[in-house]
Specification:
homodimer; about 325 residues; alpha/beta; 7-stranded parallel sheet
Chain lengths: ~325, ~325
């Protein structure tokens, strides 16, 4: 099996690659080839015994996506995206990558399909940012696409393309609406949701963290480990039962910022909590308060997608996967 | 007031222009300038006393949309589209005009906004084809975007763009989800919905008509006169109350093909009905059976949008507007 990962240098892309390399198989088939692309050179994986190509390219530039498709991967994970905060600040860049890049990738696949009936499985990472206020407390699977950010708009447009390209037979597509990934390891990125991770990650490492929103803000979370699990599961199941509605909201944990802080307190103590400094930020609050608080996620759950069941568990996954099991 | 109509040579575009020329005003303001564009040269309107520019151009070609925006119209009616049947048969042309053309127009406006804070009212003609099966008998205003055609996908993507460009302050946008327009005058076009008009228009003119679907197919209709009324009303009301959800399903008449035929019988008699020949067409049936049957249309109704209230009325409007009040 040949797997391509578009956006392979990002946090999720690297974790997904590591897991594929470690497993050696996907859906019971041996992985013989990996094609890794990103706007920066993706890391190499010496532990992988099959053929590996890693290259830096921008899928929104003419011809670049065709290069990926020329190798006819069986599965394409499309993770490449300009994150929410950056897509809000840089309108052209957001539409360039998130809309035009996605369309260029799908178009390259369609043109290959016209040549030789190529039809890969495409796993598209969408986001719960396709939903915006007013929202019910628990959002049903068939809720209207109502984004309130350019990022959410671009992801919703990607979902629509994915469904149409699937319906036309060019791809076998599934859209995965990721919860906010928490706790993100490493440095903060430009996502407006970054603080949800920061207020856990930094105090666990003995560092100060900034909280730009009130404790009452409730949101929908899953760990990086769960995100990788969603992607692998999406590429492993029969997609026929999805019918024409190809994007699924993933399961997660609904937690308020206050509940996040309580979970931190129970695991790392008062000293960790005291490292959180409240600094209200109107731009972040305006983006985040239109965001979802909780989902039913019944379709995904019934198809076997699994996430954590408490915020304590999300913190423990971070300590296990990123801190070698020790708080430091 | 300066009004631009993109798609001014089409059936709705011509009727809209005729009405604007006849009225001389929109929302109480005198119309001093009309800019009419289409892929074919739009007709001239000698009765119009203001400045009139009519030109043939393709908005999806680089720079063409900027030419329209350079004249800074106060209101832009965006009617240009590849219809459903053609967008289904010609994938590239459909995306080229319906998605890229719409985006090019909005981008041209955004770039003008960056120059001088230009922010026109944009009336975008969407379609009830943004909704696809499984559908409830009466579709609520907040139903999920679930298109089952490339045309519906492109219109849904246009709605998302319209909302985002409005939210960012580049336009003051409203999306009008038109019912199937019935009775369309003139020759059949490539819309999959064409037969809904054909089975009325042809028999009223003493001509044979082909019916490709069963009598049980139920659908949502409004007259061309109502469509023009929706567009004028959309450009006349305060759009602030729409909030972030900028596209509205228009009111209409829910009628089955059987009910359409009964209305024809009551107005034009048995001889007219006998001109309808049943010729099942699987492609048309497959497209149409995923289509909506009826809508609540509460938001639009509460904002003052009005359509016919019976299919008899729709037929009478056709006889008045297209047949000088006489059958035959």
């Amino acid at each position: 099996m040949h797997i391509a990962i578009v956006g392979a240098a990002g946090m999720i892309g690297r974790k997904l690659t590591a897991r594929l390399v470690a497993d050696g198989t996907l859906a019971g088939q041996a992985i013989t080839r990996l094609t890794l692309v990103d706007v920066v050179e993706p890391p190499l994986w010496p532990a992988f015994s099959g053929k590996l190509d890693a290259s830096a390219l921008d899928i929104s530039e003419p011809g670049q996506a065709r290069g990926i498709v020329a190798t006819r991967p069986d599965v394409v994970f499309h993770l490449a995206a300009i994150v929410s905060g950056e897509a809000e600040l840089d309108f052209e860049k957001g539409y360039g990558i998130n809309l035009e890049g996605t369309r260029a990738l799908f178009e390259a696949i369609r043109l290959a399909h016209l040549e030789d009936s190529y039809r890969p499985c495409v796993v598209f990472t969408s986001s719960i940012a396709v939903f915006g206020a007013p929202l019910p407390d628990i959002i049903p699977d068939d809720f209207n696409l109502t984004p309130l950010t350019s990022y959410g708009t671009q992801k919703a447009m990607g979902e629509l393309l994915l469904a149409d390209y699937t319906r036309r037979g060019f791809i076998d597509g599934i859209g995965i609406r990721l919860p906010t990934i928490c706790v993100r390891p490493g440095k903060p990125n430009k996502a407006a949701s970054g603080f949800f991770s920061g207020i856990i990650r930094e105090p666990l490492a003995g560092q100060k963290a900034v909280l730009p929103v009130p404790d009452s803000i409730r949101h929908w979370h899953a760990s990086p480990r769960s995100a990788v699990g969603f992607l692998l599961h999406a590429a492993s199941i029969d997609l026929q039962p999805l019918g024409s509605r190809r994007s699924l909201t993933m399961p997660g944990v609904s937690a308020s910022v206050g509940e996040q802080i309580e979970a931190l307190r129970s695991i790392a103590g008062e000293a960790a909590v005291n490292l959180i400094r409240r600094e209200p930020d109107e731009l972040v609050l305006r983006i985040v308060e239109g965001w979802p608080r909780a989902f039913a996620a019944e379709r995904a759950t019934s198809l076997g997608f699994k996430a954590e069941t408490s915020f304590d568990e999300i913190i423990r996954v971070h300590i296990e996967d990123e801190m070698e099991g020790r708080i430091g």
